[in-house]
Design a protein that fits this description.
Elements lengths: L2 E3 L4 E3 L9 H9 L7 E5 L5 H9 L4 E6 L2 H12 L7 E5 L11 E6 L13 H7 L6 H11 E12 L3 H10 L3 E9 L5 E9 L7 E6 L9 H7 L8
Parallel strand pairs: 3-4, 3-6, 4-5, 6-7, 8-10
Antiparallel strand pairs: 1-2, 7-9, 8-9
Helix pairs in contact: 1-2
The chain binds S-adenosylmethionine (SAM).
Length: 234
Amino acid sequence: MVFFHFKHFSINQEGASMKVGTDAMILGSLIPEGKYVNALDIGTGTGVLALMTVQKNPKISITAIDIDAANVSLANENFKNSLWNKNLTVKKENFFFFKTNQIFDLIFSNPPFYLTDLGSSSSRKLSSKHLSSDFLDVFFEKSASMLSNNGVFWLILPYKDFDEWTLVARSHGLKICSLIYIYGKESNCNRIVVEFKKNTPKKVKESSLIIRDKKGGYSEEYKILTKEFHGVNL
Ligand SMILES: C[S@@+](CC[C@H](N)C(=O)[O-])C[C@H]1O[C@@H](n2cnc3c(N)ncnc32)[C@H](O)[C@@H]1O
């Protein structure tokens, strides 16, 4: 499928190293409305998360970056064809060398994960999914330096990597303020969505989301969460 049609925008994903998937659908749906002015999307791919975020926050300005030229070109096209072209800028940047004078009050990323079971030999697919653990430190150091004092930073991670990633995040002054445990089916937690802030929260908010019901269809809670985005009735 080349185009993925959302309710209010479409994503051309022809040749994208990462097609629109459940992780993006969940993270984009969970990032809430807020009084954000500037946002940064790290590893934008087709631009899907930036578009979901601007749909909810039509006054925001989002800078989206990606290391991959073909992804940048697709995101650019998808932004241009949306209702929010003026709010969205995409740049070809390697985040580890990205320099900006801007401070962001919202940062979000469906980051390249380190996958031990990676079967792909394509280097584009690898850079979509693979982040060496050596770089975790730089990833959080840079993210924290670009986040405003009251800003929020949203990530989706494999559940098995949660401890490793959050340990490094904490070492750069990022505090967990909410956790959403993502279950494919009832008994299988495979992803976690984490919201970080610089300020220590009074209490960490914890909740869970089950994507599939017992019959293998989408659960009611998943349908409700994503209903403003899915172009078709699930
Ligand atoms: C898991 S994909 C997510 C794509 C999209 N945001 C989504 O949710 O569908 C990770 C993205 O990070 C990009 N990426 C990998 N390494 C990067 C780096 N060092 N700097 C910027 N982007 C990078 C990849 O090209 C890929 O588009």
